[in-house]
Amino acid sequence: MAEQTSQRQIVLDTETTGLSTADDHRIIEIGCVELVNRRLTGETFHQYINPQREIDAGAIEVHGITNESLADKPLFADIAADFLRFIEGAELIIHNAAFDVGFLNHELTKLGHTAKIDDICSVMDTLKLARDKHPGQKNNLDALCKRYGVDNSNRELHGALLDAEILADVYLMMTGGQVSLSLAAEQFEPQHDAEKNEITTIERPRSALKVIEADATELAAHQAMLEKLQASSDGNCVWLK
Question: pLDDT at position 180, please?
Answer without folding.
Answer: 34
